[in-house]
Write a sequence for this structure.
């Protein structure tokens, strides 16, 4: 084909320009370390990069949420450990007060210490976090959840439980309401409670109680009767509609069973003594302690009074054990959540690493490949330039 | 002798012309559009003698240019495509790099916004986190606005480009018309000799015109070339050039359209123009720029609507129901500048999910209104006054005149007007307006959980709602919850089968009941007074980040934006690939043309030598003629 001189120049130049443009592109990639500099370089990769970047930002946020959740749960855990310690001390004091060697005076002294412990409990339940929010107030984080009104501790919060997003599809509870932790604790043995009537004159004390699976919820009354002091003591159990569900001769240490409930008394009840056996109501840990304090304070001398204290202490111990059990459950639950955060964090980390790898594959430059490409392009450009100069030197006019 | 002298002289004269033509070729080796010129030699008419015909010398028959009409035509059409695609590629790549730019793009804004939202969910009662959230939200809105401002800037740049290109086209057209005249006159004056340099100049002018807009050319018998644009609009006919003109879009003063000058009514011929810079600018505006703006507006509208919907189901720090977080979208309606009636059209948003990125035009023909989707061309006709299309309700009032029209752009302003509605950090509704409780005397473990708001219109509650478990709520032996404080009870609930949990809807609320309640156990739902530690609505809002709620429930915010980025990226890539391909094809076409019409210096050097030698030989002929004549004189002098 015939070539025009301008064409020879033009093609030579445009080849060199193309080579330079490619070289510039490679240089830009090397300088930025990115394979995709604008979406048009690779639209699919661009979309992937957007998605991956968002996922990474989210995981990073979840990590931060996880750390925060960990802090909040750890705070609750510490408080509950303190509460457990206080309750243990109260339990020790209760056992001590139950001792037959105690006098009303020493019991009052114990009660005084218990009052201090109760204050401590209330103040623990009113713990605030670093933001000044009450930890156990439910949603009403600015409202002091536990206040004393008269002798009772009142819960002013609600049953709100706060969750945090710690993984793409996982919300984890970081705060439990004071109601769930301190208030809604079943009294007695968890199924039913046994309360001695105030006017009991005998020495019968509750030794043990348990509920079978077929326990029927109702408010029962166990009453003892003895026609004359020479007669044997009999018991009868009535339900809320005054129907007798069980009756028989009383024997110290023997089980009285009715409708799935089983109760053992020790000591000798007097005629007319009675015990109420309601289905376990929910009782707060503060009232449990307060009840113990009240009965210690009001204790007097005499076998009946002693039995009353014993019954109150037994009932109080049951309630304390329920409360301790609740704390343990709650702490175990917190521990599970902490473990959960750990494992979620691990999986988040693993996922992050994987996403970063993918992102790097999609977005980042293969430097080795780019450098060898750069070298190749340099050689090509040099060749284009040299050959251009050589060819341009050729002209017939040189020989005229 | 005289013959020989004449022959020599004719050769000298002819070869002089050949040499100067070669010189002209060498001189114009770098002149754009120059065609190599060639001298056509011919013998002079022979002299008839008894011994036969005797040659009388040489003459220059014509000086012609090396030219192939088809190759020239090819270069012309390739110039149109190449200039068009490279303009399109450069314009599209500007949007392309805008969308992915971390400092301008939407994606980082969405990430930071939801990050801040998570921080509020972590500490719902804390004002500093809420302030950061509001800051990030206005940052996100700012990104939308900035991006839209860039796109609008691009729109006015395109308008300017169209205006200057049309001026160039008009200048070139009148240049071609005048060259037509010169060519015809010169040809007539020389009795049909081609005016090579004028022809080159005219070809060059047409090529430059082709770079501006795609043209078709028709050669007339007298040598003039007619130039047509679009689908047959004559730009140059013979010696006269028509003019294109730009006029303002009747609906948008910032846009210009292209029409033919001198017509009574301005008719937009933009859609017929293709190729060249003008065609590219018009198709960029119609095909990429407008749709990108609309898609961006659609995304903004979607974010505003879905986020607001959830936000209004929440409760702020002041105990008020959350209103709009972002300013809700309002469709834009523009009346044509040419309307003569008194009708007004208003448009409202009925369903954000049904919105598309299209614009609509509604026009009155004297009795009927026609509503036309500008993107798909789908239309509906009716007497009005109410129309409904793709999630937009349109209402017409007043008296229209025939020919009146209105442009309805549901989302075009979406990104521009995207803004934060709340200004007070406490007004962010992180909490849920209701909370549940259980009776303190409950004996069972029946519970109410996952309480959420479907419809906030009944909130705040007039009073607490209490559910009381009753073994005979729905008749003897059919257990359930009696409902007090709300319509809709009793709720069937059988602990024997439902204790794993059942979903319940009551009024505008939904929740889950589970567990085994005892008779008389109560569950309550109450207004969430003082719930500053509640983050339930913030969590629900946070979940919107990944929820597929846009584009008919298929795309998250990010997906939707990524789709927009991908769309523009693909167009940009296509345009630049096409520009590369067309550039190569143009180079090939130019090569092919230049191989015919370009000047090769070596060739000219050879011609120079050739004609020089011939000239020397012709001079020798004269010398010989002289010698012969002298010989004769010498012979007769004695």
């Amino acid at each position: 084909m015939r070539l025009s001189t301008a064409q020879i120049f033009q093609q030579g130049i445009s080849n060199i320009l193309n080579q330079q443009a490619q070289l510039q592109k490679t240089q830009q990639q090397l300088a930025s370390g990115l394979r995709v500099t604008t979406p048009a370089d690779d639209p699919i990769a661009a979309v992937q990069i957007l998605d991956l970047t968002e996922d990474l930002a989210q995981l990073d946020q979840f990590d931060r949420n996880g750390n925060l959740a960990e802090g909040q749960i750890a705070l609750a855990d510490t408080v509950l450990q303190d509460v457990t310690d206080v309750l243990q001390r109260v339990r020790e004091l209760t056992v001590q007060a139950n001792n037959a060697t105690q006098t009303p005076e020493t019991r009052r002294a114990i009660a005084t210490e218990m009052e201090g412990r109760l204050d401590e409990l209330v103040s623990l339940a009113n713990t605030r976090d670093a933001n000044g929010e009450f930890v156990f107030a439910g949603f009403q984080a600015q409202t002091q959840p536990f206040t004393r009104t008269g002798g009772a501790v009142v819960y002013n919060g609600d049953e709100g439980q706060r969750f945090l997003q710690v993984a793409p599809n996982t919300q984890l509870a970081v705060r439990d309401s004071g109601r769930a932790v301190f208030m809604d604790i079943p009294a007695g043995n968890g199924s039913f409670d046994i309360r001695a009537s105030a006017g009991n004159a005998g020495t019968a004390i509750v030794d043990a109680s348990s509920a079978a699976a077929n326990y029927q919820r109702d408010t029962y009354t166990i009453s003892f009767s003895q026609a004359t002091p020479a007669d044997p003591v009999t018991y009868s159990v009535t339900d809320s509609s005054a129907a007798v569900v069980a009756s028989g001769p009383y024997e110290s240490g023997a089980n009285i069973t009715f409708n799935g409930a089983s109760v053992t008394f020790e000591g000798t009840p007097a005629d007319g003594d009675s015990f109420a056996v309601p289905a376990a109501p929910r009782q707060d840990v503060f009232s449990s302690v307060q009840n113990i304090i009240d009965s210690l304070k009001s204790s007097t001398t005499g076998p009946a009074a002693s039995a009353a204290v014993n019954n109150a202490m037994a009932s109080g111990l049951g309630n304390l054990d329920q409360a301790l059990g609740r704390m343990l459950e709650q702490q175990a639950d917190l521990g599970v959540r902490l473990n959960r955060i750990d494992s979620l964090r691990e999986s988040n980390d693993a996922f992050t690493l994987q996403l970063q790898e993918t992102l790097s594959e999609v977005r980042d430059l293969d430097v080795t490949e780019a450098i060898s490409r750069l070298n190749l392009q340099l050689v090509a450009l040099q060749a284009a330039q040299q050959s251009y100069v050589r060819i341009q030197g050729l002209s017939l006019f040189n020989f005229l | 002798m005289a013959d020989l002298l004449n022959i020599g002289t004719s050769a000298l004269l002819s070869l002089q012309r050949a040499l100067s033509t070669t010189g002209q070729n060498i001189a114009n080796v770098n002149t754009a559009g120059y065609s190599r010129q060639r001298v056509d030699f011919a013998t002079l008419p022979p002299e008839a003698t008894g011994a036969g015909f005797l040659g009388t010398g040489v003459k220059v028959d014509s000086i012609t240019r090396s030219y192939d009409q088809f190759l020239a035509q090819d270069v012309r059409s390739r110039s149109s495509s190449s200039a068009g695609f490279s303009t399109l590629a450069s314009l599209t790549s500007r949007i392309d790099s805008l969308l992915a730019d971390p400092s301008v793009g939407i994606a980082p804004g969405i990430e930071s916004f939801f990050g801040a939202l998570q921080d509020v969910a972590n500490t719902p009662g804390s004002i500093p986190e809420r302030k950061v959230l509001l800051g990030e939200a206005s940052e996100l809105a700012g990104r939308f606005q900035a991006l839209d401002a860039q796109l609008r800037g691009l729109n006015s740049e395109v308008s300017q480009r169209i205006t200057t290109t049309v001026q160039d086209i008009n200048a070139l057209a009148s240049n071609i018309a005048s060259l037509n005249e010169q060519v015809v006159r010169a040809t007539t004056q020389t009795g049909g000799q081609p005016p090579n340099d004028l022809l080159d100049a005219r070809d060059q002018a047409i090529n430059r015109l082709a770079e501006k807009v795609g043209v078709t050319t028709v050669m007339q018998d007298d040598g003039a070339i007619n130039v047509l644009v679009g689908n047959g609009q004559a730009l140059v006919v013979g010696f006269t050039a028509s003019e294109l003109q730009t006029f303002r879009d009747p609906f948008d003063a910032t846009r210009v359209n292209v029409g033919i000058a001198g017509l009574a009514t301005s008719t937009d011929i933009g859609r017929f123009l293709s190729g060249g810079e003008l065609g590219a600018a018009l198709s960029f505006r119609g095909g990429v720029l407008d749709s990108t703006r609309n898609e961006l507006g659609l995304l903004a509208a979607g974010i505003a609507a879905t986020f607001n919907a959830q936000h209004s189901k929440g409760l702020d720090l002041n105990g008020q129901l959350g209103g709009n977080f972002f300013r809700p979208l309002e469709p834009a309606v523009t009346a044509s500048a040419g309307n003569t009636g008194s009708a007004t059209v208003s448009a409202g948003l009925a369903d954000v999910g049904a919105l598309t990125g299209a614009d609509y035009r509604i026009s009155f023909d004297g009795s009927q209104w026609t509503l036309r989707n500008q993107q798909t061309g789908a239309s509906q006709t009716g007497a009005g006054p109410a129309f409904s299309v793709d999630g937009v309700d349109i209402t017409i009032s007043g008296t229209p005149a025939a020919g009146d029209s209105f442009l309805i752009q549901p989302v075009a302003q979406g990104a521009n007007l995207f803004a934060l509605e709340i200004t007070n950090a406490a007004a962010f509704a992180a909490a849920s307006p209701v909370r549940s409780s259980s009776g303190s005397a409950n004996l069972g473990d029946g519970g109410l959980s996952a309480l959420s708001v479907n419809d906030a219109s009944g909130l705040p509650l007039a009073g607490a709602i209490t559910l009381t478990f009753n073994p005979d709520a729905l008749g003897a032996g059919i257990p359930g919850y009696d409902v007090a404080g709300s319509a809709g009870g009793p709720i069937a609930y059988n602990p024997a089968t439902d204790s794993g949990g059942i979903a319940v809807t009551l009024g505008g609320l939904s929740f889950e009941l589970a567990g085994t309640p005892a008779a008389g156990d109560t569950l309550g739902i109450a207004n969430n007074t003082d719930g500053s530690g509640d983050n339930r609505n913030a969590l629900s809002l946070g979940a919107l980040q990944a929820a597929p709620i846009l584009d008919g429930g298929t795309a998250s915010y990010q997906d939707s934006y990524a789709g927009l980025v991908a769309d523009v990226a693909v167009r940009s890539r296509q345009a630049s690939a096409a520009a590369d391909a067309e550039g190569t094809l143009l180079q090939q076409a130019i090569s092919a043309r230049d191989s015919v019409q370009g000047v090769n210096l070596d060739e000219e050097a050879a011609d120079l030598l050739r004609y020089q030698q011939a000239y020397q030989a012709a001079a020798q002929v004269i010398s010989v003629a002289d010698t012969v004549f002298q010989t004769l004189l010498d012979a007769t002098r004695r």
Summary: Chain A touches chain B through 59 residues (CB under 8 Å). The two ends of chain A are 25 Å apart (CA to CA). Residues 100 and 306 of chain A are 8 Å apart (CA to CA).
